Amino acid sequence: MSQRTLVLVKPDGVQRGLTGQILARIEAKGYTLSQLKLVNASREVLEQHYAEHQGKPFFEPLVQFMLSGPVVAAVVEGDRVIEGFRILAGATEPTTAAPGTIRGDLGRDWGEKVQKNLVHGSDSPESAEREIGIWFG
Ligand code: RTP
Ligand code: MG
């Protein structure tokens, strides 16, 4: 059944000039980009997006990281795309993410308080609809 997911190219991906490669991997896999924009996220949007992480030690570093430059937000569609994109993205920690994944091939540890791991993908249909509402209204 066709699904949609929210994908973000985080500020590290945009700053490093990896947006095109990341979007190309999504398209090469066969998924469809149905909405796409470059945005400077507000603190308000980020606090909503990362509401589940409020109070955790990495929350404030995470918000500061996500405010550090523009983000590319996309709605991506396809059958089982939520699971499929998270597999394309790889594990949260880029140092240990498998080769062949976005994080494994393009990311590494930079010795910072938060993992700069290039991309975000929604983790469930409920999260996807909630996050698409936050980023695209
Ligand atoms: P995402 O939501 O970005 O796809 O990543 P995820 O599910 O793999 O990771 P999650 O646990 O939801 O955490 C959200 C983001 O917070 C940063 N983080 N840093 N200890 C750390 O350094 C740490 N833990 C989490 C990452 O940017 C992660 O993607
Ligand atoms: Mg997550």
UniProtKB/TrEMBL annotation:
Matches recorded under CDD domains: NDPk_I
Cofactor: Mg(2+)
Catalytic activity of the protein: a ribonucleoside 5'-diphosphate + ATP = a ribonucleoside 5'-triphosphate + ADP; a 2'-deoxyribonucleoside 5'-diphosphate + ATP = a 2'-deoxyribonucleoside 5'-triphosphate + ADP
Coiled coil feature spans: none
EC number: 2.7.4.6
UniProt: ATP binding residues: K10, F58, R86, T92, R103, N117
Cellular component, GO annotation: cytoplasm
Keywords: ATP-binding, Cytoplasm, Kinase, Magnesium, Metal-binding, Nucleotide metabolism, Nucleotide-binding, Phosphoprotein, Transferase
Domain Nucleoside diphosphate kinase-like: 2-137
Enzyme superclass (EC): transferase
Domain of life of the source: Bacteria
Xref: PROSITE patterns: NDPK, NDPK_LIKE
Kinase listed as a keyword: yes
Location of the protein in the cell: Cytoplasm
GO MF annotation list: ATP binding; metal ion binding; nucleoside diphosphate kinase activity
Active site as annotated: H120 (pros-phosphohistidine intermediate)
Gene Ontology terms describing biological process: CTP biosynthetic process; GTP biosynthetic process; UTP biosynthetic process
Primary location group: cytoplasm
Complex and partners: Homotetramer.
Protein family membership: Belongs to the NDK family.
Function as written in the Swiss-Prot or TrEMBL entry: Major role in the synthesis of nucleoside triphosphates other than ATP. The ATP gamma phosphate is transferred to the NDP beta phosphate via a ping-pong mechanism, using a phosphorylated active-site intermediate.
Protein name: Nucleoside diphosphate kinase
Species for this entry: Kocuria tytonicola
